[in-house]
Amino acid sequence: MNPALKSTALIYMLGCSAFFFSGCLYSTHHFNTGRILEPGKTAVGLTYGSSYAYEVKCPQGQGYWGYEVLEDGSPVCLQWSSSQIDTVPANILTRFYPKIGFDYRLGVRGKWGPFSGVEIGYHHEVPLHYPPLVAFDIKLGLTPFPGWASAHSVSAGWIIGMWADNSWFMEYGASRFWGSFGLYGNLKATWLATQPFDIMRINEDLRFIHKRRWINQGSLGVMWDLPNIPVIPDYFSPQVTFTWPGVPATEEKLKVSESGILEWNVNWTFGWKFN
What is the distance between the alpha carbons of residues 199 and 248, in angstroms, rounded to a whole number? Predict the structure, then answer.
């Protein structure tokens, strides 16, 4: 079978399985350098990073037996005291969790009109505290800018949503390489799918509630192209991603889920390239 056809079949099978792993949150592993694979070439990346959620913390002691979230999103701890229930403000703690990811990229076309090349990809991201997400995209290479960008590109795609709708995104990535070492950055805007905490109830007409929101992200990283040694990765990259406003996976109705917080995540990836 033609290698490109085999790669396409693999993406199709992974896409079918994606419907069994459909989270709603945005991705935070963004290793887009703006470079485009040549037609028929593939790249596979394994990533590791961090993500975080929020946890309600109540005092430990006699009488405290849980918490509730008020209508304004403020959590309060419940205490049984003197034959009545008292409430005191609860603390909201930040909890960091590991997150792993898998990337598959395929070059599908060389120069095409104003574009320097075309690439498609599949991204699977698995946070410990939230359902995995699956994203698909197409990337179009742009003519390099002499003097500052070795490569840059634009891309668009979607993330499979869990219930009511999907997420859609656009991204711009650019890099500057000096031999095997390069600096890169990318900007991404996501029209985020309705979150689970928004659809805990159903309208009287039995239609799901739709509550979309824009999420903006920026990433900065460095990348090393490693020597071509069998089994050893072909490239390595550490990176930091900033997200605003953050929508962390957390307890329904907590204030932090709607606040304009700035999230940040540190990620690492190792990748292999194949002809």
Answer: 16
Closest listed residue to residue 154, CA positions, set 118, 197, 107, 112:
118
| Cα(272)–Cα(47) distance, integer angstroms | 12
pLDDT in tens, 145-193: 776 678 999 999 999 877 678 999 999 999 999 989 999 999 999 999 8
197 — phi, psi (to 5°)? -70, -10
- Residue 43, phi then psi, degrees to nearest 5: -140, 140
Structure tokens belonging to residue 21: 């792993």
Quote the CA–CA distance of 69 and 48 in Å, as a whole number.
Answer: 33
pLDDT of residue 264: 86
Q: Is 89 helix (H, G, I), strand (E, B) or coil?
A: strand
* Rounded Cα gap, residues 254 and 258, in angstroms: 8
Neighbour count for residue 256 (Cβ, 10 Å): 17
The neighbour count for residue 50, using CB atoms within 10 Å, is: 15
At 186, list the tokens.
């990318």
Beta-strand runs (E) in 132-262: 133-142, 151-159, 167-178, 181-192, 213-225, 235-244
Q: Are 27 and 47 in contact (CB under 8 A)?
A: no
- CA 102 – CA 123 distance, rounded (Å): 6
Give per-residue pLDDT as tens, 212-228: 889 999 999 999 999 98
